[in-house]
Amino acid sequence: MKESQSSINPHRGEHNTHNEELVVHYKINFKYVGLCTVCIPLAALLLCLLTAYILQFDDVHETHCKVFNILPSISAVTGISPQRYIWRISIALHIGPRVIISAVYNAYQLNMINPSADQDVKARAQLWLNMSFLLDLIEAGSLCGVTYISNRENYPIHEKLFITFMVSSLTHMLACIKGTKIAAETRKDLESVKTGLKYKKDLFALSLLCTAGLVIFFIQHRFFCFRMAFSLFALCEYIIAAANVAFHLSVILDFPTEELMVGKFTVRHSTDGSGDELIAHKKDD
């Protein structure tokens, strides 16, 4: 579809150059969509944790070691009934908008690359940004997997999906940071992304640190049955989940004023005798 560079009225904008008009059926603030997308699973997780801890304490603390623990894992509180239904509904509401946000952010960052920059630098920026997009999709897919295949139903598959989620989440963070930085370098405008990059790097470092703790405490629990090891493992899980939410929130905040719209272009052919405009639907080119 051809688009004019002329200004568009938010509700019924006119393309003067091509005699086109944009009719908007629905629009919503993109940042609001993003905030809801991020907060829905976070709120559901907190609800699952609180209700399971208060009402089903023994069920969520049951492990093969039979040692004392005070904090259940995410898999434990989202794998029992009725919490599993709350968690699954939240992920169902989360995944669709998340894929849209990922696609929009990838397109936004690719458009921020300076077309007149060095070809090698542009190619590296595009590589990192496209890799970030792919890893984000893998992360979303593995999140679906660990949600709908619980550790109580099929532990081996759940474990592999959890590892996939962790690896894709960390590598997505790294690729996003690298891609954003190189894209800014093509514009010679690192200052504009300095604050956002520092925030993302801090969250990435926190996630790496907690992932190391996750592995150490899992080994202590699984093979040595250390007292409280599983609770420390669970604590690392919750910190990683919070860092993941905060990282995606930082991405969403890069769109403070953008709108998500559904609409169509129309073309004015002529005017009738009374001076009224005759509008025809414009077909995609």
Q: What fraction of residues sit in β-strands?
A: 5-15%
Shape: globular
Rg: 24 Å
Regions with little confidence, pLDDT below 50 for 5+ residues: 1-17, 275-279, 281-285
- How far from one another are the termini? 5 Å
**Which structural class best describes the helix and strand composition?**
alpha+beta
Q: In this structure, how is the largest beta sheet organized?
A: 4 strands, antiparallel
The side-by-side strand order for the widest beta sheet comes to 1-2-3-4
Order of SSEs: EEHHHHHHHHEE
- Structure summary, number of beta strands: 4
Helical content, roughly? 55-70%
The residue-averaged pLDDT reads 86
Number of helices: 8
Q: Your description of this structure?
A:
The chain is α+β, with helices and mostly antiparallel strands and 285 residues long. The protein has 8 helices and 4 strands, in the order E-E-H-H-H-H-H-H-H-H-E-E. A 4-stranded antiparallel β-sheet has the order 1-2-3-4. A hairpin with a 4-residue loop joins strand 1 and strand 2. The longest helix has 32 residues, at 155-186. The model is unreliable at 1-17, 275-279 and 281-285 (pLDDT under 50).
